[in-house]
Amino acid sequence: MTRYVQRSIQVYLMDDHEVVRRGLQDLLEGKRDITVVGEGGSAQQAMDTIPRLRPDVMVLDIHLRDGTGVEVCRAVRAVEPTVRCLLLTSDDDDEALLSAVLAGAHGYALKEARTLNLVDAIRRVGAGDLLLDEVGAQSLVERMSTLLDSGPHLSADDMRTLAYVVDGLTGRDHDAPVVVTDPSLEREVAALVPKLTRELSRA
Amino acid sequence: MREALARVEDLLATQERVHELLDAVVGIATDLDLRSVLHRIVRAACWLSGARYGALGVLGADQRLSDFITYGVTDAEHSAIGDLPQGHGILGLLIEQPKPIRLRQISDHPNSFGFPPHHPPMSTFLGVPIRVGEQVFGNIYLTEKTEGAEFTDEDEQVVEALAAAAGAAIGNARLYAISERRREWLEASSQITRQLLGSGKPADAFDLIVRRARSVSDARFSAIVLIDDDGAATVIAADGIDVDHLAKLSVDARIVKESAAHETPSVFEDVRVVLGDGWPRGPNEDESSGRLVLAPLVSGDSVSGVLLIATRDEASTVEEDNLFASFANQAALALDLARAHEDREALVVYEDRERIARDLHDLVIQRLFATGMQLQGACRLAVRPEVRQRLTAAVADLDATIRDIRTAIFELHTDQDSTSLKSALVVLGHEYASTLGFAPQLGFDGPLDTGVGAEAMEELLAVAREGLSNVARHAEASRVSLDVGVSADTVRLRITDDGVGIEEPARGNGLPNMRSRAEALGGSMSVRSNAPRGTVLEWAVPRTRPHP
């Protein structure tokens, strides 16, 4: 493969902080192999726009005023499974990893001042790599499965959602995160993140 | 004529006695103190009947005399006789058959028991029972009518009338005493409620509760025994028991648990049943004696146990026990309220922390992140190398700040019960803050909670503890940071201090132990000097699949 003819990576940015979007754009504009094709500040906007733009990579902030990156990722990939996803977050690693696994994202990047990691992560996800910590991700899926047997603090509805997610995850192959999606359940899956964070730290 | 005169005299005498009787009754009825009422009754009975000696025997629960109040016997004679009568012989006859008895010669009666040595000689006798309501309260005993005369039918009637009035007065005095006691207990309860709802914490209130319970009941000692989640009984507050005795108590948890489940107070006539042999016995107290009352102290689901008092025998009545129990009940309610109050305050603090964490997360980190990107943009434009260098350093500083904030957010959220590695490190940091004199700085990198197996977590925590304690004991440091990172294949712990460094490894610094913990998991450990001063300890083990 020759790098000279390689098409640049098309990226969509979603973050509800304008300073962050501006900063990201400034940062990525300087990279020749990356092109920002669109940006948005809300989950709804992102879900409407991304399937139309069909970028290679969507960089999604996890916490938004009108939803979460987890929900956007699942909803977009349900209709446009070729769009790969990198979650961007100010959470810590454990929460980010859980969100990424539930979202079926290809990786996550923490909001850190040194952006080398971020740029590198966009390139690798663009190239089709899966950036999730494999041991951690596997352990999460296992622990979620055990929660299905006894999640004493989860409601019956939460358990149903969890079962749906775990089914999708355990049946998945490693190069392509979750493809099983159900538009009516994406919001519930996203709402599961904080509950699971609590539940898994108790277990 | 003479006969008629005698009858008039009799009548006059009777009228006079009726007057005297009325005076006596009024005097008795206006008194509210039970003991002084009893004294007045005996004195009045002697006056009205012309007896030289009089006594009032109070019946105890066991149908023996629990008290004996005399008139006409001097203190010297009292002490010469010794113990008060218990209710044998003629005195006992009146107890068995509560109706008036008149005798010309006590010693002639078949039931006569004789007198103890040094007892004044007594021959004529009049005994009349006193009833309070339906119950026999005790008996009036009169002996030695003046000038060797026999007690007359009229004497009997007058004393019976007095006994009837006395019964009413005693009932009255008793009611008064009970209402007084009720008032004292209520006052104690409200003091506790005041303290608890003021600024007091439930823990401080326990001391006040035992102190007040003991002083109002005039108990020998008092204590609160709580049952913990494991079913063990612990004395958490006591009054009248010194530390040595407290250590010697062996509380029967089963009895405490049962008593806590009863609504009514549980009474034990032998302290040892509940507290074992080590209870604080006074110099004159028999080791088997000692009455103990246990009242349930149950509040919501947070407190389960008893408030207990060791009562003095003379002050023990069912009414008193019930008053004590309702005091305990009030105290438990107050504890419950105070705890709810405390919970509410904790909730406010919790909500505050959540808000701060949210602000840090939603605002501060975003801005620092954006600023970092701008600085890096500026870096590209900068021509002079020293400007680039400074910008790069600033970005690194920002990164350190973001990391600190992330740890702070975690600490604000942290739940002490959680079994996560990060929480355990936060708890460890808090624990060592007092030993070190400052809080160690924590840094987390990578999915610590998700990505570290149970075995590695346990070893890492042990090494972190050992390392912090080394710094506290040897390093004389003013800063310690504890960084834990999880990368694709390694779990790494780094403890950095700015102390004196280790030129000569001190003995007992636990380094070999830490090394062997690493090696057992296929890892390694190194210790080196930190520039400009201090020590860096690096401990790393390969990652394995975490056990669920």
Written overview of the protein:
The complex is a heterodimer of chains A (203) and B (548). Chain A is 51% helix and 16% strand. Chain A is an alpha/beta fold. In chain A, the strands form two sheets. Chain A has a five-stranded parallel beta sheet, with helices on both faces. In chain A, strands 4-5 form a two-stranded antiparallel sheet. Chain B has 548 residues and is an alpha+beta fold. Chain B has helices at residues 2-30, 34-49, 75-81, 89-96, 153-197, 202-217, 243-248, 253-261, 271-275, 318-381, 385-413, 421-436, 448-451, 454-475, 511-520, and strands at 51-59, 65-71, 101-103, 125-132, 135-145, 221-227, 233-239, 266-268, 291-299, 303-311, 441-445, 480-486, 490-497, 524-529, 535-542. Chain B has a five-stranded antiparallel beta sheet, sandwiched between helices. A five-stranded antiparallel beta sheet of chain B has the order 7-6-10-9-8. In chain B, strand 1 and strand 2 (65-71) form a beta hairpin. Chain B starts with a helix and ends in a 6-residue tail after the last strand. Classes of the chains: A alpha/beta (203), B alpha+beta (548). Chain A binds chain B through residues 17, 19-20, 22-24, 26-27, 30, 63, 90-94, 96-98, 110-115, 133-136, 138-140, 142-143, 146, 198, 200-203, and chain B through 361-362, 365-377, 380, 395-396, 398-399, 401-403, 406, 409-410, 415, 417-420, 422-423, 444-451, 486, 488, 543-546, 548.
